[in-house]
Design a protein that fits this description.
This protein is α/β, with parallel strands linked by helices and 372 residues long. It folds into two domains: 124 residues, Enolase-like, N-terminal domain (Enolase-like, domain 1, 2-Layer Sandwich), CATH 3.30.390; 225 residues, TIM Barrel, CATH 3.20.20. The protein is built from twelve helices and 13 strands. The strands form three sheets. It has a seven-stranded parallel sheet. The chain is globular and about 65 Å long. Bound molecules: [(2S)-5-oxo-2,5-dihydrofuran-2-yl]acetic acid and magnesium ion. The site of [(2S)-5-oxo-2,5-dihydrofuran-2-yl]acetic acid (MUC) has 10 residues, from loops. This is Muconate cycloisomerase. Pathway: Aromatic compound metabolism. Keywords: Aromatic hydrocarbons catabolism, Isomerase, Manganese, Metal-binding. It holds the Pfam family MR_MLE_N. Its cofactor is Mn(2+).
């Protein structure tokens, strides 16, 4: 008799951050993750994570909506279904539920984790195999204070933790933001790559002014300077400047990717399992990018260890990513809910080993940080 999905539990888990994390649309002091525990009739449990940034500040799904929509709409579509045909289960979810990509990503991760544990294979092995076991990881400087950011970057360099840095800008007037970035780049010099993420905060004419100054200051990559839906504007910026544009909020899935490359976009795409509804969706986008010669970047929505590990298994199956990854989410949190945290070393992170995601929940910590 084939194994079926028996039970799906969702937990809201609140973990404090190590310092305030300031983005153009919100400041985070805590990260809320939706943890999925999916039990199957063979006794195996699959783990998944659905996480966003700043409640509803970043996108249309909040932690509470992710939990509620899984519990009410998505989980009932999976309960009683055969566990192993993940393509059929994805199609079933997509047929009955529109959008809700973070919720779908959390469930797909739990299906893959369980399938890997069942077959004794890592998620990367289920996807055809890892091409590398160690991936580069950038750090985001977002304390809101230029001196603190420089100290933080110097420490990370000395620790051999990170040598690529992303600065979150867009909350202040453009000249003030550019000054902040230029001072940090000047202090770090050639030792580090410095990039910025504007998180949609500028209109196109502000972007033209800001990007010119950032390019002159030696910034290597400009992420999502203008609103997500302004594809034509993003293409114009990409054609206008030598410094490459990184599309983040603008590119959710393969269709967005196709639209951008058909319009002549020649920058890079930030891949996130949460934007694309999971690993399979994000790999479709990666394949469009590869076919078009668009650079890849392994992105995060600041997930904890479970979502980060799921992303790492996906990125490990791809050819070298031109812009590396930013899978530092667990390092921004004061604590972890897995027994053995991911191993960050030598400016990157090791792909976790073992069946499935390669992680085990720490039940005490999970109980401690779960919302009652
Ligand atoms: C984003 O928009 O890139 C990734 C790193 C970080 O600090 O915020 C995220 C979201
Ligand atoms: Mg971004």
């Amino acid at each position: 008799m084939s194994t079926i999905i028996q039970h799906i539990e969702t937990l809201l888990v609140d973990l404090p951050t190590i310092r305030p994390h300031k983005l153009s649309m919100t400041t985070m002091a805590c990260q809320t993750m939706v943890i999925v525990r999916m039990r199957h009739s063979d006794g195996i449990e699959g783990l998944g994570e659905g996480t966003t940034i700043g409640g509803l500040a970043y996108g249309p799904e909040s932690p509470e909506s992710i939990k509620r929509n899984i519990d009410t709409y998505l989980a009932p579509l999976l309960i009683g279904q055969p566990s192993s045909n993940i393509n059929a289960l994805r199609a079933r979810l997509n047929r009955h539920v529109r959008g809700n990509m973070i919720a779908k990503s959390a469930l797909e991760t739990a299906l893959l984790d369980a399938q890997g544990k069942r077959q004794g294979l890592s998620v990367a092995a289920l996807l055809g195999g890892a091409r590398r076991e160690h991936l580069p990881v950038l750090w985001t400087l977002a304390s809101g204070d230029t001196t603190k950011d420089i100290d933080e970057a110097l420490l990370r360099l000395e620790q051999r933790r990170h040598c690529d840095f992303k600065l979150k800008i867009g909350a202040n007037p453009v000249d003030q933001d550019v000054r902040h970035v230029a001072v940090i780049k000047e202090a770090l010099g050639e030792r580090a790559s410095v990039r910025v993420d504007v998180n949609q905060a500028w209109d196109e004419s502000t972007a033209v002014r800001g990007i010119q100054m950032l390019q002159d200051a030696g910034i290597e990559l400009i992420e999502q300077a203008i609103p997500a839906r302004e594809h034509a504007g993003l293409i114009r910026l990409a054609k206008r400047f030598n410094v490459p544009m990184l599309a983040d909020e603008a590119v959710q899935d393969a269709r967005d990717g196709l639209d951008l490359v058909c319009g002549g976009f020649n920058g890079a795409f930030a891949l996130k399992i949460a934007k694309s509804g999971g690993i399979y969706g994000v790999l479709e986008l990666a394949h469009v990018a590869q076919a078009a010669g668009v650079g890849l970047y392994g992105g995060t929505l600041l997930e904890g260890s479970i979502g980060t590990a799921a992303s790492l298994h996906a990125w490990a199956t791809l050819p070298e990513m031109a812009w590396g990854t930013e899978m530092f989410g667990p390092l921004l949190l004061k604590d972890d809910i897995v027994v053995k945290p991911l191993n960050y070393t030598e400016f990157g992170v090791d792909l976790p080993q073992g069946p499935g995601l390669g992680l085990t929940l720490d039940e005490d910590k999970l109980a401690h940080y779960s919302r009652k």
